[in-house]
Write a structure and sequence with these properties.
The protein is mostly helical. Helix content is 43%, strand content 4%. It has a domain of 57 residues.
């Protein structure tokens, strides 16, 4: 089974919005479930209108956009923006 991340196929590179389940898994994989929940609830992200991840998603910001804002704000290395252990899609 081919693993996709944020709607990006590692082979094709098409872009769709990430599903909430993928968003939650990405947070758990990168930060751990407990700390990830704290970040989503408490860290204010300027890239999504100075809201927390939870607030931004509740306000309709696509989860993919929120995930990328969270990655930038917490200095997640770019190679892990598509998921821990998942290579970025080919151009």
């Amino acid at each position: 089974m081919e693993r996709t991340w944020f709607g990006l196929s590692p082979v094709v590179g098409s872009v769709d919005d990430v599903k909430m389940s993928e968003f939650k898994q990405a947070i758990a994989d990168e930060f751990g479930a407990g700390y990830g929940r704290v970040l989503a609830a408490d860290l204010v992200l300027g890239d999504v209108g100075s809201r927390t991840a939870n607030q931004a998603i509740s306000d309709g910001v696509p989860p993919r956009e929120v995930w990328l804002a969270l990655c930038r704000a917490t200095d997640v290395p770019r190679e892990r923006w598509y998921g821990v252990g998942t290579p970025p899609p080919r151009a």
